[in-house]
Design goal:
The complex is a heterodimer of chains A (about 350) and B (about 425). Chain A has about 350 residues and is mainly α. Chain A contains 15 helices and 4 strands. Chain A has 2 domains: about 35 residues; about 220 residues, no CATH class. Chain B has 2 domains: about 240 residues, Rossmann fold, CATH 3.40.50.2300; about 160 residues, Rossmann fold (3-Layer(aba) Sandwich), CATH 3.40.50. Classes of the chains: A mainly alpha (about 350), B alpha/beta (about 425). At the A-B interface, helix 2, helix 3, strand 4, helix 11 and helix 13 of A face helix 1, strand 2, helix 3 and helix 4 of B.
């Protein structure tokens, strides 16, 4: 009825290639941005920032990154935790070595450093595929975490091996450290998440994204039609690692403030991000956000209902959380193997035809 | 859909996090009854809850105010720890005791901003002992560097003061917790001339075959351990597998509970660990606990952990906090104290033999005093040894003091570095 192309007149090419072609989509998108940029910063408090929204945004960036590599380019990676560690540790080294450098540049530079490391570990992807590549990236996960534990230079020789973030500000507003305002913490993550999601959307719609998808669907066919596999795969590794590096830098500097390589960037985190994109939807930007929301927010929500509301025993609630998250993952994989984003896609298709489904 | 979902979940949470009535003395306990660290986390959580239940049941709380424990499950995970902190700090929380060095590091800057004291008993950041710089952090009665030095002193005693050339290995949890003693052990090795080998074990510590192979190959004379959770019991079993002499295997006070030695059975006989306090249930306090808590069915756990080392540790921890609350109430003349008053209470805490007798724990631990300069107590500990036949720990030494000549400069160096990084002016 409302949600359809009919009546949307495109009078120029730029209009025709708009990201959101349907009016309702476009206004919905503006509405979400309005809520995210205006309403939430006005209402946010400490708990919301550090327990809910900041982790959600950081994980969303990480799953966007992995989605580029796995969802769009079809290269399975289990090295996400390790790449996040690269982002975090390079951010730390930049922040401490160049105290005058703005934190925004530190974060972007750490993304670039991670991109370099990503390319390095992406080289084997030209020869090995599928599960074998997963094992190769698993090696990068263990190697990188080991490296950050092993070489004291990375953590500035601190006694505990932890890295902790100094206070930094953007335009005079603190964004890292303990004195940070919740809205500032949220806004910096939101800006990065928005910018990166916007970039990801446009990259994947362009020629590079088509090359990635061709590689994913059948690499030999892609090569025959003239896709340079070397370029496609390595660019996917580089851009994906750039995203993941930024997620790691934000994870360390804005979200936690102090991290320990083994715990914060272990293999669990790699799996967590992989689950996010599988549940959210491979090859979907919305899916990255939904997946992150599901894996990060659902446990918090469940805990607040069970422990905060019904006053259950905390341990029992945690066990139930494990069971129900696991159960829901299986349910989603059985009933919607293409992820939660596919539900949204189906709904849109149904809406377009409604009320005359045939 | 994403937005709608988010909005619904957000709205639900908002309605849930509404602040409750602030009538009681609220103490959050960041527990971990799940995951690979639960063998260590469960007895501690039970002990903590049971002691405050006793105070509520027997004395009607502290100074007439009931104590309310908010247990928040972290699974020993720092991210969940932060979530728990943010969720509970608004409920009038008086003091945090996270029982995790990782979470402690996370919270050190936060509690200073929120002005809530944190007590990390025998764990956390060692240099927080310097109260002039770490105003809100307390780590009495002992810290990891004390522990490292006490273990070396015990080895010195056994060898008549001569350990140069001995090979000592440190098996440690590869995290902030396990890395804490390294610097001290390195300094001490310069002083005494032993050879130190560092052997990290990654989280969660279920796989230690290669580490113990290295110990066997290197023919280590002594092994020190900084372990936690399942890592402890796995290490002790592996040590038994390579027939390492158990009397030369010494754990920190976090690696010396019943849960750690029982899985190895007979072979854990003679395993040693440091002890911050007495062992067993042979204290008058346990009569009261039985009358007011266990017999009434109010015990927090299933009763299996009662009297275990970590249970006693948590009882000791809660007794110290209760005493600090009492001190704060006396100092400020109000019973419903604030976190800021609680800090004063902790800083002026004086635990004498009479005080411990009044708890029902005579001779349980060494007496000590907290001051503005010294938030860390005196750093005294004993050595306990496991008797596998009787299935009990025995204290085998008197109080051993740590080597202050080595530790104090290290604490000064580390804390002044922290002060410089964070622009803190020393207070006293």
């Amino acid at each position: 009825m409302f949600y359809r192309e009919v009546g949307e007149f495109k009078t120029s090419y730029p209009q025709d290639s708009e990201s959101f072609g349907i009016g309702l989509d476009k206004y919905g998108y503006y509405f979400v941005l309005f809520i995210a940029f205006v309403i939430i910063p006005l209402m946010i408090n400490d708990y919301w920032a550090s327990a809910v929204l900041v982790p959600f945004l950081v994980w969303a960036i990480a799953s966007l990154g992995l989605n580029i590599l796995t969802g769009y380019c079809g290269q399975i990676s289990l090295g996400t935790g390790g790449f996040m560690a690269v982002g975090a540790y390079s951010c730390y080294k930049l922040m401490t070595s160049f105290p005058d450098l703005n934190i925004i540049f530190c974060i972007i530079l750490s993304g670039l450093i991670t991109a370099g490391v990503g390319i390095l570990f992406g080289i084997p992807s030209l020869r090995i595929k599928g599960f074998y590549l997963a094992v190769a990236t698993l090696a990068s996960q263990f190697f990188l975490v080991w490296l950050f534990n092993r070489v004291p230079w990375f953590y500035n020789y601190s006694a505990s091996g932890q890295i902790s973030t100094p206070e930094r500000s953007v335009f005079g507003i603190l964004v890292t450290g303990p004195n940070v305002q919740p809205w500032a913490q949220y806004m910096i993550c939101l800006l990065f998440a928005f910018g990166l999601a916007w970039g990801c959307r446009n990259l994947t719609r362009g020629s590079l994204g088509r090359k990635w998808r061709a590689t994913r669907d059948m690499d030999i066919a892609a090569e025959i039609i003239g896709v340079n596999l070397l370029q496609a795969k390595l660019s996917a590794f580089a851009i994906s690692s750039f995203y993941i590096g930024i997620a790691g830098a934000l994870f360390f500097s804005v979200y936690l403030g102090a991290v320990d390589a083994t715990e914060a960037f272990g293999i669990n985190q790699s799996f967590l991000v992989l689950f996010m994109i599988i549940i959210g939807g491979l090859g979907s930007i919305l899916g990255s956000f939904i997946g992150a929301a599901f894996m990060v927010l659902f446990p918090v929500l469940l805990k607040n209902i069970l422990v905060g509301w019904w006053e259950w025993d905390a341990a029992l609630a945690t066990h139930l959380e494990f069971i129900s998250v696991g159960f829901l993952i299986i349910v989603f994989l059985i009933f919607e193997p293409h992820g939660l984003a596919q539900l949204w896609r189906l709904l849109k298709q149904k809406l377009r035809l409604w009320p005359y489904p045939h | 859909m994403k937005v709608r979902k988010l909005a619904i979940s957000l709205a639900t949470i908002i309605s849930l996090v509404a602040p409750p009535a602030l009538a009681d003395l609220v103490i959050p306990w960041l527990s971990y009854r799940t995951g690979p660290y639960s063998p260590s986390g469960i007895p501690a959580a039970d002990g903590f809850a049971d002691y405050f239940t006793l105070l509520n049941e027997r004395d009607g709380g502290i100074g007439g105010e009931l104590v309310k424990i908010i247990e928040c499950e972290t699974g020993y995970n720092t991210q969940k720890g932060v979530e728990c902190y943010e969720a509970t700090k608004g409920e009038g929380s008086l003091v945090y005791a996270p029982l995790s060095t990782g979470i402690t590091y996370q919270l050190i800057p936060k509690v200073a901003v929120d002005q809530i004291p944190m007590h990390t008993m025998g764990y956390g950041r060692t240099s927080a002992k310097n109260g002039a710089i770490f105003e809100w952090i307390f780590n009495f009665p002992g810290n990891y560097w004390d522990g490292a030095s006490i273990a070396i002193n015990h080895i010195l005693d056994e060898n008549g003061g001569e350990i140069s050339g001995k090979k000592i290995a440190l098996v440690y949890h590869n995290s902030a917790y396990g890395k804490e003693p390294i610097k001290t052990l390195e300094k001490l090795s310069e002083k005494y001339g032993y050879e130190l080998t560092l052997i990290p074990v990654d989280h969660p510590g279920l796989e230690q075959k290669s580490q113990w192979l290295e110990i066997r190959r290197g023919r280590m004379d002594y092994v020190l351990m900084w372990g936690w959770g399942v890592m402890n019991s796995v290490a002790i079993q592996e040590a038994a597998n390579i027939r390492f002499p158990m009397e030369n295997f010494i754990g920190i006070w976090w690696s010396g509970s019943e849960n750690d030695v029982l899985p190895a059975g007979e072979r854990a006989h003679n395993y040693k660990a440091l002890a911050l306090h007495g062992v067993g249930t042979d204290y008058p306090l346990y009569d009261d606990l039985k009358t007011y808590v266990y017999d009434k069915g109010l015990a927090a756990g299933d009763g299996s952990s009662i009297g275990s080392v970590l249970y006693n540790r948590a009882v000791y921890n809660s007794a110290l906090l209760a005493e600090a609350i009492k001190t704060a109430q006396e100092m400020h003349g109000v019973s419903d104290i604030t976190p800021v008053m609680m800090r004063d209470g902790l800083e002026n805490l004086s635990v004498t033999e009479e005080v411990m007798t009044s708890w029902g724990l005579p001779g349980f631990a060494p007496p000590f005093e907290v001051s503005c300069e010294n938030h860390g107590g005196d750093g005294l500990a004993m050595v306990q040894q496991w008797d596998a036949e009787a299935q009990e720990w025995n204290i085998i030494t008197g109080l051993i003091s740590s080597d202050k000549e080595v530790i104090d400069p290290l604490i000064m160096e580390d804390s002044t570095q922290y002060a410089a990084e964070n622009n803190i002016t020393p207070r006293c």
